[in-house]
Design goal:
Blueprint (H helix, E strand, L loop, with lengths): L10 E3 L11 H19 L2 E3 L1 H6 L2 H4 L9 H18 L1
Parallel strand pairs: 1-2
Amino acid sequence: IRDLAGVECVVWLELNENPNVHPRWPERAAAFNRILRRVAANHGALVAAWSDVAAQHPGAWFRTDGIHLRPAGRRGYAEYISRFVYLRC
C-alpha cells in the first residue's frame, strides 16, 4: 500500500464466497474478505463486493467448479469492475 501513495483510487476485489467444488471455499473466502475489508478501511481503499454480484449468476456465469468464469461471466466481471470504478472513483 505504501507504494500506492500517489494513486487516487485503489479498488480491491473480494473473493467469490459462493459454494463450489471445494467444501471449505466459502468459509475461507469469507475470512479473506473480512480481512480485506478491514485492511482496505485502514488504508482508504475501496472493496468491490464481487461475491454479491456473483451470487446472482451462479449457473450462467460460472463453470461447474463454481469459481472459473464462462464467457458471459468474464463479460459480467469486467462490466462490474468498470461500473464500480466509474461510480466510486
